């Protein structure tokens, strides 16, 4: 029988070691771990950050300098190295930079995955600067950092950036990594096998997001002005060459590829677009490029691609990521950077705060012990999320009434009805009872465990079936 649980939002403040939920971490933290927030005032003179492009060494110096000046708000770590040996830096900005706070979400931005799309790289440096200098004076930023761990990766492709040229708006020089791979085509793909050789930058990111349960993410790009949301790929993904039938497929391929969380992804994209100075106007960058209604688009409706990062985040790890195209010119002159910062500042902050929307909570056994890797699925949304080592889960949802299916191997499955309201997240605690003491009855369904990286097979089945129906209706 379904249980109706609506519990007021009570934060659980248990502090564990950084990445503690994933046992030992290979990431080493740079900085002073002993300071607390009261130390900030005595270190007011943090590093300056000019509006200009910073090469890898300059960026590294800046990040180290911030972590030294704001040790109670920041932690700097590298998730690995690029092909040419440059660190893939991540700066955590949070009131708890070194430690995951149980019950509070981790979120991220990744920029410069295409090395010549340089604006996002600088904007993330300015976002770091803004967050650390506003904590004491801006109550909203204080609330955000007190309740969220924000991980910022200014460059996922430092090698590509190193050969890119300021002022080049539309070339692809510097887009790829040092081995000429497009990193945003280098992830495992749900809809089509991706035969591209995995690159060190991609492997590092895959390991990173498998170690930390990120709830929300943005990938910053350039060359357009739009917030693009999953899916990027479609079940009909194929390369069009010259045949007549191919052109039919091509037009079909530009149809939206709708995810089970389409309403949420649209909302998240609109939050970015509507808080941006001009994105929501949907004006095209050039006369021969598309315009986007309200400044948002489904990824595949714009153009389908295989091996993208946002579909991977969502389907493999339950992290809702969208792609943010924030500049018509990929690498504009540095004197334009203040304008880009002002255009995006509000968006960058408000978007991350959306992680505090929907439902979150804990799955525990009858003794109050957390159940790790329990499957958490909202009815009608055929994507499975999993609990962390501490039994935590997060599900960003719009206001409404939902039912949650929770199951784990060795436990009786549980169905819970809950509501989501606009003003604050719903805390939802679920207790699973051991299946061992009960004879197999009509309500017991054994749970089949699946290997961690694969998304739920039910999703594949439903998508494939629906598209097979479309195909047979269209061509049959
Ligand atoms: Zn790009």
From TrEMBL:
GO molecular function: metallocarboxypeptidase activity; zinc ion binding
One of the Pfam families matching this protein, by short name: CarboxypepD_reg
Domain annotation Peptidase M14: ranges: 52-355
PROSITE patterns assigned: CARBOXYPEPT_ZN_1, CARBOXYPEPT_ZN_2, PEPTIDASE_M14
Entry keywords, A to Z: Carboxypeptidase, Glycoprotein, Hydrolase, Metal-binding, Protease, Signal, Zinc
Catalytic residues identified in the record: 325 (proton donor/acceptor)
Signal sequence bounds: 1-20
Coiled-coil annotated spans: none
Keyword Transcription carried by entry: no
Protein family: Belongs to the peptidase M14 family.
Name this polypeptide is given: Peptidase M14 domain-containing protein
Source organism of the structure: Parnassius mnemosyne
């Amino acid at each position: 029988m379904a249980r109706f649980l609506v519990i007021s939002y009570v934060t659980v403040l248990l502090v564990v070691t950084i990445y503690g939920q994933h046992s030992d971490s290979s990431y080493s933290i740079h900085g002073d771990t002993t300071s607390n927030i009261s130390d900030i005032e005595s270190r007011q003179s943090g590093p300056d950050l000019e509006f200009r492009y910073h090469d890898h060494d300059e960026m590294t110096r800046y990040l180290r300098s911030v972590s030294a000046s704001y040790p109670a708000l920041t932690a700097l770590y590298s998730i690995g190295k690029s092909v040419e040996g440059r660190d893939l830096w991540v700066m955590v900005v949070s009131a708890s930079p070194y430690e995951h706070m149980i019950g509070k979400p981790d979120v991220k931005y990744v920029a410069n995955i295409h090395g010549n799309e340089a604006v996002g790289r600088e904007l993330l440096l300015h976002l770091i600067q803004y967050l650390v200098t506003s904590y004491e004076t801006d109550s909203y930023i204080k609330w955000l950092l007190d309740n969220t761990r924000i991980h910022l990766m200014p460059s996922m492709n430092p090698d590509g950036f190193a050969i890119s040229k300021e002022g080049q708006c539309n070339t692809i020089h510097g887009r790829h990594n040092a081995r000429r791979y497009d990193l945003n085509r280098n992830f495992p793909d749900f809809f089509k096998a991706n035969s591209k050789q995995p690159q060190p930058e991609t492997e590092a990111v895959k390991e990173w997001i498998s170690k930390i349960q990120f709830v929300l993410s943005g990938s910053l790009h350039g060359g357009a002005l739009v917030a693009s949301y999953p899916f990027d790929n479609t079940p009909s993904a194929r390369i069009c060459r010259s045949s007549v039938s191919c052109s039919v497929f091509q037009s079909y391929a530009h149809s939206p590829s709708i995810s089970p969380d389409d309403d949420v992804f649209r909302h998240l994209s609109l939050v970015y677009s509507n808080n941006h100075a001009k994105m929501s106007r949907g004006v095209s960058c050039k006369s021969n490029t598309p315009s986007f209604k309200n400044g948002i688009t489904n990824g595949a409706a714009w153009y389908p691609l295989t091996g993208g990062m946002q579909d991977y985040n969502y389907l493999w790890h339950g992290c809702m990521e969208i792609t943010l195209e924030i500049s018509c010119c990929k690498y504009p002159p540095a004197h334009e950077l203040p304008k880009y910062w002002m255009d995006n500042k509000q968006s960058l902050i408000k978007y991350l705060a959306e992680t505090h929307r929907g439902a979150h909570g804990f799955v525990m056994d009858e003794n109050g012990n957390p159940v790790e890797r329990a499957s958490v699925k909202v009815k009608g949304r055929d994507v499975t999320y999993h609990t962390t080592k501490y039994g935590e889960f997060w599900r960003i949802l719009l206001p409404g009434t939902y039912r949650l299916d929770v199951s784990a191997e060795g436990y009786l499955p549980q169905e819970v009805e809950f509501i989501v309201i606009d003003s604050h997240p719903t805390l939802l605690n679920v207790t699973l009872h051991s299946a061992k003491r009960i004879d197999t009855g009509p309500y017991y369904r054994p749970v089949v465990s699946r290997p961690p990286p694969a998304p739920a097979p039910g999703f594949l089945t439903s998508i494939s079936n629906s598209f097979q129906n479309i195909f047979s209706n269209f061509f049959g």
